[in-house]
């Protein structure tokens, strides 16, 4: 064998060896895992749920340490979300695993056909830091349900959660089935050199492109859950008060560090002042009880790098004529950025060009909805798009004329909570979907199986010699 290959490289801490050793062990174990029954897979999911329940405090503490997530937000968005996803998979697994019969057509009239869901094999899950528990666990549930072995690579920017996940997984799974490999981009790079059967990556569009090109070397299939700018359209027929309250909540949960957070808002020019006033009221109600910011309920920015990046976005916008309407305060000591609303944005402001991923909200005005549609269509397809309107006609019009990974009408972000909906982006915001059956499917190969009838001798009709078989062609021509 070629000793330059990661699979045969020496076992060292920093070389390919450690990752390749786990990969090889999983490869050898994959057939046994693939053959696991419905009940065995359900038992694994139950074991995972029980371990999460037993470790709940450690997980919440880790999320507080990494992101200052409040116990409430961490429980709802990270832990209970996962319990719901596990329960849904357990409830539906026998249906998902049952081969799906498909009809036959004229050319194969006497055959029977079905789709058999078989596991992809050995899979890699790479996660980001913003929902560092949920974004590892949700794809893991789908991978287990589909019968795969799996290596998880948490984000190095959420080290406490990374350690908590590694401990939890080691308690309940053998490394040759589910393993956690902690570390940074170098570890990811070494993992990506291995011939995984499927790679499920959640993170930025920039790194998603690297992951896809590395996967191409082995023709591994990929699911890419990426980012981008998710616009909110506040239609003239919207309930402004409700829209402002929901947008403020969605933008500021986890201090704006949410892939489907509203990135910026379009509001009709005649309603801008009213909307800004309502937005300010909503922000104060949510985070400034008694006039002071309540940091118990408000997250911090994950790193100095991101804190400074966000500060630059505001400085750049202001230098180009934008006005800070609310907030604008940056507390370096604990990386707190007060909820900040900006108006009067120029198209060349950086904040209108890159994903914000922080508690800064540009509000942009429009005269005619056509301008909004044209603007959205001239930019990358968003991961999420939000429309506030009491006119179904206007909602339909906006949906029909634009494209986005997902859309929520008269609310933000909550479309992620329905496991019957595929969650994912489109082009730069992602490739493929996840959650529920959609997640099970991405970790499965849809194997097409056809059984020929035992009594039909097709050769008599369709094989050479063709002399005397003109009637077959005539019959087919008539029927088609
Ligand atoms: P990131 O792309 O920087 O990192 C994601 C993961 O990739 C991390 O585990 C990191 O260690 C690894 N990585 C970094 N450099 C790499 C390289 N060169 N090769 C291989 N792997 C590498 O993203 P992030 O900053 O952790 O997360 C924020 C981004 O994730 C935002 O763009 C956000 O929108 C997106 N996101 C998307 C979703 C979704 O479901 N679509 C969910 C959460 C976050």
3D structure, described in words:
This protein has 16 helices and 18 strands. The model is unreliable at 10-14 (pLDDT under 50). It has helices at residues 17-34, 38-54, 56-67, 71-97, 134-145, 159-172, 185-192, 205-216, 240-252, 272-287, 304-319, 369-377, 392-401, 436-442, 459-462, 470-479, and strands at 100-102, 112-119, 122-126, 149-153, 178-180, 198-202, 221-225, 231-234, 264-268, 323-326, 330-331, 336-337, 340-343, 360-366, 384-388, 406-409, 430-431, 444-451. The longest helix is centred in the N-terminal third of the chain and has 27 residues, at 71-97. α2 packs antiparallel against α4 (71-97), α4 packs parallel to α5 and α5 packs across α14 (436-442). The chain has two domains: 18-226 and 432-447, Aldehyde Dehydrogenase, Chain A, domain 1 (3-Layer(aba) Sandwich); 231-418, Aldehyde Dehydrogenase, Chain A, domain 2 (3-Layer(aba) Sandwich). By secondary structure, it is of the alpha/beta class. The strands form four sheets. Strands 10-13-14-9-8-15-16 form a seven-stranded mixed sheet, sandwiched between helices. A six-stranded mixed sheet has the order 5-4-3-6-7-17, sandwiched between helices. 43% of the residues lie in helices and 17% in strands. The radius of gyration is 26 Å and the shape is globular. The site of nicotinamide-adenine-dinucleotide (NAD) has 29 residues, from α7 and α8.
Classify the oligomer: single chain
Instruction: Give average pLDDT, whole number.
Output: 95
Tally of DSSP β-strands: 18
**Which structural class matches the secondary elements?**
alpha/beta
Helix content range = 40-55%
CATH architecture of the largest domain: 3-Layer(aba) Sandwich
How would the global form be characterised? globular
Q: Low-confidence runs (pLDDT<50, min 5 residues)?
A: 10-14
* Main sheet overview: 7 strands, mixed
Number of helices: 16
């Amino acid at each position: 064998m070629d000793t330059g290959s990661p699979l045969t490289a020496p076992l060292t801490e920093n070389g390919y060896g450690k990752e390749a050793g786990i990969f090889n062990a999983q490869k050898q174990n994959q057939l046994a895992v693939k053959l696991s029954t419905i009940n065995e897979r359900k038992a694994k999911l139950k074991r995972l749920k029980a371990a999460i329940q037993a470790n709940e405090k450690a997980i919440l503490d880790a999320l507080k340490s990494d992101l200052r997530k409040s116990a409430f937000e961490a429980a709802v968005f990270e832990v209970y979300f996962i319990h719901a996803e596990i329960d849904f998979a357990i409830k539906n697994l026998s249906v998902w695993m049952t081969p799906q019969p498909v009809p036959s057509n004229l050319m194969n009239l006497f055959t029977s056909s079905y789709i058999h869901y078989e596991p992809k094999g050995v899979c890699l899950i790479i996660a980001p830091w913003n929902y560092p528990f949920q974004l590892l666990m949700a794809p893991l549930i789908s991978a287990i349900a589909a019968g795969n072995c799996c290596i998880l690579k948490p984000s190095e920017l959420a080290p406490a959660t990374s350690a908590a996940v590694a401990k939890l997984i080691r308690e309940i799974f053998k490394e040759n089935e589910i393993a956690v490999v902690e570390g940074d981009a170098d570890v990811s790079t070494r993992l990506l050199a291995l011939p995984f059967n499927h790679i499920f990556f959640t993170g930025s569009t920039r790194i998603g492109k690297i992951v896809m090109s590395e996967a191409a070397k082995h023709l591994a299939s990929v699911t890419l859950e990426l980012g981008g700018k998710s616009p909110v359209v506040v239609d003239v027929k919207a309930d402004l008060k409700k829209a402002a309250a929901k947008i403020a909540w969605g933008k500021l949960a986890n201090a704006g560090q949410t892939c489907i957070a509203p990135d910026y808002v379009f509001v009709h020019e005649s309603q801008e002042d009213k909307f800004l006033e309502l937005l300010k009221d909503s922000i104060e109600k949510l985070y400034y009880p008694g006039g002071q910011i309540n940091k118990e309920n408000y997250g911090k920015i994950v790193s100095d790098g991101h804190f400074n990046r966000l500060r630059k976005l505001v400085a750049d916008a202001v230098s180009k004529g934008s006005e800070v309407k609310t907030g604008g305060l940056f507390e370096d000591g604990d990386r707190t950025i007060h909820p900040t609303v900006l108006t009067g944005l120029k198209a060349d402001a950086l904040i209108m060009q890159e994903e914000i991923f922080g508690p800064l909200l540009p509000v942009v005005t429009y005269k005619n909805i056509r301008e909004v549609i044209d603007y959205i269509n001239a930019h990358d397809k968003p991961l999420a798009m939000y429309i506030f309107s009491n006119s179904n006609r206007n909602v339909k019009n906006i949906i029909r004329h634009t494209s986005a990974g997902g859309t929520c009408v008269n609310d933000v972000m909550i479309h992620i909570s329905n496991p019957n909906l595929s969650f994912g982006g489109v082009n730069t915001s992602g490739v493929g979907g996840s959650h529920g059956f959609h997640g099970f499917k991405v970790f499965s190969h849809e194997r097409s199986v056809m059984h020929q009838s035992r009594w039909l001798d097709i050769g008599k009709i369709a094989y050479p010699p063709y002399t005397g078989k003109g009637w077959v062609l005539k019959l087919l021509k008539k029927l088609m």
